[in-house]
Amino acid sequence: MMRTRPLKVALLGCGVVGSEVARIMTTHADDLAARIGAPVELAGVAVRRPDKVRGGVPAELITTDATALVKRGDIDVVVEVIGGIEPARTLITTAFEHGASVVSANKALLAQDGAALYAAAEQHGQDLYYEAAVAGAIPLIRPLRESLAGDKINRVMGIVNGTTNFILDKMDTSGAGYSEALDEATALGYAEADPTADVEGFDAAAKAAILAGIAFHTRVKLDDVYREGMTEVTAADFASAKQMGCTIKLLAICERAADGGSVTARVHPAMIPLSHPLASVREAYNAVFVEAEAAGRLMFYGPGAGGSPTASAVLGDLVAVCRNRLNEATGPGESAYTRLPVSPMGEVVTRYHISLDVADKPGVLAQVATVFAEHGVSIDTVRQQGKDGEASLVVVTHRAPDAALSGTVEALRKLDTVRGVASIMRVEGE
Amino acid sequence: MMRTRPLKVALLGCGVVGSEVARIMTTHADDLAARIGAPVELAGVAVRRPDKVRGGVPAELITTDATALVKRGDIDVVVEVIGGIEPARTLITTAFEHGASVVSANKALLAQDGAALYAAAEQHGQDLYYEAAVAGAIPLIRPLRESLAGDKINRVMGIVNGTTNFILDKMDTSGAGYSEALDEATALGYAEADPTADVEGFDAAAKAAILAGIAFHTRVKLDDVYREGMTEVTAADFASAKQMGCTIKLLAICERAADGGSVTARVHPAMIPLSHPLASVREAYNAVFVEAEAAGRLMFYGPGAGGSPTASAVLGDLVAVCRNRLNEATGPGESAYTRLPVSPMGEVVTRYHISLDVADKPGVLAQVATVFAEHGVSIDTVRQQGKDGEASLVVVTHRAPDAALSGTVEALRKLDTVRGVASIMRVEGE
Fold first, then answer.
1. Among the ranges given (A149-163, A276-290, A379-393), the one the predictor scored with the smallest mean pLDDT
2. Which of B138, B150, B297 sits opposite A24 (nearest CB)?
3. pLDDT for A77
4. Hey, which residues does B379 pair with through a beta bridge?
5. Active-site residue among B152, B207, B242, B361?
6. In chain B, what residues touch A150 (CB-CB under 8 Å)?
7. What is the pLDDT of residue B135?
8. ACT domain location, by residue (chains A, B) (predicted)?
9. Which of B75, B61, B107, B63 is nearest to B88 (CA)?
């Protein structure tokens, strides 16, 4: 039987995502009510600039005073789609203090202050849900937190930023350079005017921190995540990747160490084999590959951003939180019981693809090979190409700790016969 | 703070899946306890043949009296991995009556009697979870029921049977015929001695019924699902598919009609373009493609069967059900509020690829084209090949109701100039 008093929702932010949340709450009100077991009502919408509110939201619901809205006391669920650290953080904790649960799409805040927010939610007996914070509409947080709750996840490897995937896909398919591909992404609305957060990997790093924490039941902060952007990936790198039967993706990789005693989280461009399911993720799509002890290899694929897909994730959480509320219960809170330390990048085991410009004379290969051996790095393949007194050496290593690999590169730079290191790229996905 | 009284689990069935559930419950007891908030204890294991129980289960837990086990009164959760209709159905309802929730992997039973089981669970205030019933370890039921609860799903299209995907993949890559590929699947353990349930599409049809019900919030019974097996797919069909840039998959397709007033569910082999994400699902893997109004196009990929993957799904449900129990709440029950009727196959809108053996004489194409026109079926492409007085016509239609398409084929069979219909295959995924 359906309860007749509606659950009241406060919406913080009414941009691309927020306006879509408001629209669906209105157009699909009957469906939402049936799925929740009670009607839901949009009780207020807090915005910075009321003149910019998009169509469909009744004027009487609009306010510029977000704090007063979350303090009203009759709000059941606060939906936070403002983004950024403040005022979002204060508004969310204020919401908990005033008896509301929270649905957030705020990856930056969750990556930085997830533990404190979880603690505040638990203290006040409220829910904190954030499916939309990672990979947009792709159901990922809930499968990791709940469907795989009886399994042991060993690795999460994903394409979690649509902008950079669009740029890399464009470079791969058209042979364009980075700048040209970025211009196209900007023109099509896939990249923002200032693309730093995307192309330097900050956005992906926040998502990696969130995913690693959930996957390994431990705390991983944004600062724990090693981060390299993709602005230095060149058309030549793509040509090298093709020769190896690979493509290049900006990957977020969260791994449990082989001995199980620590975890790592990192974001960087990497070559992956064309046969890997992530290699065929095109345009601005996202996909996350999960390896679990019992479940095996899983992949989740879909649009990683955009107003409608993100709104879908927000509304799925809204339904869950409202159902919990009717049940007078809360969903799973933070699970950080393993308290596994996060190891630095140097301890990550990976492979390098290294292109060297070298003098074209006898003995160079022997010199180079000696440097690898001295650092304990085993070579998988070497390809040598010479022309006009100059030559290039392309070396692909076997798996070794990143510290040994980067140490090798530093030592190679000091060799007289090495004129330059043309490119270094990690190789993943095998 | 952790509760110290353990939650008691009764396991019904201890074959490939059950023994793996028992093993993980023992080896990962601490992880499960931390995730649930209380320890879980295997309280009894009911089997038909105690001499066949696999390693690791203490002898004192084994019983042949499943009914007495579920009636004990101290059982919190019954895990049913027996399969089939009886005695599973009676044991599950008995479990509800005696205060236990149920986790089941039983697709046949859920497809046939899901509504009655849901009603029994609700009547007794218990949970019924069954992630493992569809697509093994791939988190699918929970994302559809919960993550997409705020969205409107319009289509679910999936490869949900690993045996048939292995056979079709083998035919595609090696050019083998059906019998040869089936023999290989049997030798490798991918097909059972009697492969009927898989190759005739019964297994996929049960999953389609479950998926359609969840996706569209309505009741879809096994009998509502149109079903065609894949035993008649030939090497020639694969050759035709290749010429169209397609491959052939056995698909389970659940669709909402364009007017929203009804739904359909069907299982049959179909050509899909190589560019479609489902086309690259190889070997015995499963994948389900979901199209939702706001979320867009999502795909879930992973192993669809096997002891460990299925056990992973069962244990994820076990954790959720145990958490609900500690919260004194239940998860989402049946959601069938839309009460949408299920339309017959004739009303499904699809495309046909038809190969005809025809007399090699003038006017044949005109005759054939007239038959299509009379049935209101528009032709997309025709390819004509002739040799030695015989010829073949390959026609690919535009989209039309299945009844009009099959009516066209019947009429074509009656033409004097048509010597035979060599193959008919639906074309999907565009």
1. A379-393
2. B150
3. 98
4. B397
5. B207
6. 24, 28, 32, 35, 311-312, 314-319
7. 87
8. 353-426
9. B107
